[in-house]
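step=encode ok
step=design start
structure_in=
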């Protein structure tokens, strides 16, 4: 099937996957200390940013979803001449207006797309749909990776769309919030009710580290550990158990707002790699983009997985 998959830059995709000719990344606009720019995709550039002193709780950092007009222009100029079947996959509609903007653009593009495609000698009809991933970061990236693989093999566009919707429903995202003071400030900027400053500062001072689950458009705190490494260990134990029980898709997507070598040096990651290799599960690692780390801060960790045991809880 001749297809294109459009994601926004909040999708945690390893840099190697972003080179796919079928994946198009719609940039989220970042305002970084007064300067407006597209979200950064280069992993080496992101690592330099996270390791430096320019990205802290004092940084004036905001994100803005692309407008329906910007989405439409992106589709007309970058996408529709390359594919007859287009899926626009957005991060959770509960956390951003991106999905609604993409949906509006997809629903209004037919006439303009027909003109552009006809002028280029393309007479095949364009089929385009917008899907809500119902999650974000690593889980959103996992849905995109699954969708790209499915679309490369499936010949029926409507059938593929329904299968992707089913996969979205079983995808789980877990995020370790490394800096509660940072995350609290960003939440307040977005108008989201959160914990008090004194509580956030106390948690940061004594090292309390929360884990949240983001799935089916709901964000739920599921655990709090005494350190980042304790939280990571809890997630690794959960991942190993789910691998042993079976996955709907033998890929786990891992995203970190920092240098991946720091993760690879941990014994917990070695254990996870060993079990994944034993069960032929592929682990993908990538550096978190600014659109996501703007919410959770440098050092945040995210994982996306589609476990067959949907009743299993973290902990």
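sequence_out=
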């Amino acid at each position: 099937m001749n297809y294109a998959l459009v994601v926004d830059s909040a999708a945690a995709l390893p840099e190697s996957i972003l080179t796919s000719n079928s994946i198009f990344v719609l940039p989220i606009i970042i305002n970084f200390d007064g300067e407006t720019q597209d979200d950064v995709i280069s992993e080496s550039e992101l690592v330099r940013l996270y390791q430096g002193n320019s990205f802290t709780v004092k940084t004036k950092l905001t994100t803005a979803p692309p407008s329906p007009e910007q989405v439409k222009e992106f589709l007309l100029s970058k996408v529709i001449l390359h594919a007859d079947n287009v899926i626009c996959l957005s991060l959770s509609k509960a956390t951003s207006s991106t999905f609604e903007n993409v949906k509006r653009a997809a629903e209004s593009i037919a006439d303009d797309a027909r003109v552009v495609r006809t002028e280029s000698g393309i007479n095949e009809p364009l089929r385009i749909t917008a899907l809500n991933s119902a999650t974000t970061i690593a889980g959103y990236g996992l849905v995109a990776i699954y969708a790209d693989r499915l679309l490369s093999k499936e010949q029926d566009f409507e059938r593929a769309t329904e299968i992707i919707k089913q996969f979205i429903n079983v995808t789980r995202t877990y995020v370790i919030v490394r800096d509660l003071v940072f995350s609290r400030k960003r939440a307040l900027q977005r108008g989201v009710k959160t914990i008090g400053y004194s509580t956030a500062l106390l948690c940061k001072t004594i090292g309390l580290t929360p884990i949240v689950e983001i799935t089916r458009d709901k964000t739920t705190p599921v655990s709090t550990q005494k350190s980042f490494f304790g939280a990571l260990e809890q997630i690794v134990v959960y991942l190993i158990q789910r691998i042993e029980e079976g996955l709907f898709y033998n890929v786990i997507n891992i995203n970190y707002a920092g240098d991946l070598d720091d993760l690879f040096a941990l014994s917990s990651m070695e254990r996870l790699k060993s079990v994944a290799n034993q069960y032929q599960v592929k682990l993908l690692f990538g550096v978190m983009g600014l659109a996501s780390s703007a919410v959770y801060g440098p050092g945040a960790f995210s994982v996306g997985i589609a476990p067959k045991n949907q009743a299993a809880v973290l902990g």
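step=design ok
step=annotate ok -> The domain at 172-305 is CATH 3.30.1180.10 (Hypothetical Protein Tm841; Chain: A;domain 3).
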